[in-house]
């Protein structure tokens, strides 16, 4: 397993997650353990993947609680992500502070990338090639809210094209909650790193994230 890789695992005392519609009788711990196992299998598939031209030894994996309510998605890994093997390495601190200010436990958040290697902007073909991994991640984590950072992250969800029941409309206004499946809402926001570094972009990102608590409730 590459150095720095952290497979998300359920904590000893997991946070209480609001009940899902038609929830099973399985405990939160068992549910999270099942999701963690699915994410371990997905990590192996990502490590071995050669579906597109973005091949390389450095691959980036999702990180966070395996059964998170909120999934964060950016289009491409940063240099720090590629070094650590974990998504949102640079953005973790400012986003954690933002969610804490919104009274959302960080354990309810999971972050990932649309493509898993390389720092250049992904092409449409590369987004399609990597979409199988994103589908697997969404199905494992089962978030209620998917926050897409920038138009290419939104496009990564759009190219799923009905898989696992997800359909993205032609227009996704920034900051507005758009239902893409009966149990999943998409919010488009600022691209990264501008969303956590640029003054005006940070304000817009904060405005967009303020919709999340009401959607959870």
Structure overview:
This protein has 217 residues and is α/β, with parallel strands linked by helices. The protein has a single domain, classed as Uracil-DNA glycosylase-like domain (Uracil-DNA Glycosylase, subunit E). It is 38% helix and 13% strand. It is built from eight helices and six strands; from the N terminus they run H-E-E-H-H-E-H-E-H-E-E-H-H-H. It has helices at residues 28-48, 79-84, 92-101, 124-141, 151-158, 194-197, 199-209, 212-216, and strands at residues 63-64, 70-74, 109-113, 145-149, 177-181, 184-189. The protein has a six-stranded mixed β-sheet, with helices on both faces. A hairpin with a 2-residue loop joins strand 5 and strand 6. Helix 1 packs antiparallel against helix 4 (124-141). The model is unreliable at 1-15 and 17-26 (pLDDT under 50).
Helix/strand layout:
Elements: H1 28-48, E1 63-64, E2 70-74, H2 79-84, H3 92-101, E3 109-113, H4 124-141, E4 145-149, H5 151-158, E5 177-181, E6 184-189, H6 194-197, H7 199-209, H8 212-216
Parallel strand pairs: 2-3, 2-4, 4-6
Antiparallel strand pairs: 1-3, 5-6
Helix pairs in contact: 1-4
Brief description of this entry?
By secondary structure, this protein is of the alpha/beta class.
Q: CATH first level: which class?
A: Alpha Beta
Q: Which structural class best describes the helix and strand composition?
A: alpha/beta
Strand content: 5-15%
Architecture per CATH nomenclature, i.e. the level-2 architecture: 3-Layer(aba) Sandwich
- Percent of residues in helices comes to 25-40%
Distance between the termini: 38 Å
Q: Kindly state the number of beta strands.
A: 6
Q: Strand order of the main beta sheet, please?
A: 1-3-2-4-6-5
């Amino acid at each position: 397993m590459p150095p720095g890789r952290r497979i998300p695992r359920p904590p000893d005392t997991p946070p209480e997650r609001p009940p899902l519609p038609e929830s099973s009788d399985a405990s939160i711990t068992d549910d999270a353990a099942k999701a963690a196992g699915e994410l371990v299998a997905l990590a192996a598939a990502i490590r071995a993947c050669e579906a597109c031209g973005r091949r390389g030894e450095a691959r980036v994996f999702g990180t966070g609680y395996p059964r998170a309510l909120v999934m964060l998605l950016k289009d491409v890994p940063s240099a720090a992500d590629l070094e650590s093997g974990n998504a949102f390495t640079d953005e973790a601190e400012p986003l954690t502070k933002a969610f804490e200010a919104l009274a959302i436990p960080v354990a309810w958040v999971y972050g990932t990338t649309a493509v898993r290697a390389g720092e250049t902007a992904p092409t449409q073909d590369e987004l399609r090639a990597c979409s199988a991994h994103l589908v697997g991640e969404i199905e494992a984590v089962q978030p209620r809210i998917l926050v897409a950072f920038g138009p290419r992250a939104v496009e990564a969800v759009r190219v799923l094209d009905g898989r696992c029941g997800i359909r993205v409309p032609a227009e996704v206004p920034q900051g507005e909650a758009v239902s893409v499946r009966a149990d999943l809402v998409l919010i488009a926001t600022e691209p990264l790193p501008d969303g956590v570094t640029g003054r005006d972009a940070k304000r817009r990102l904060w405005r967009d994230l303020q919709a999340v608590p009401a959607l959870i409730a």
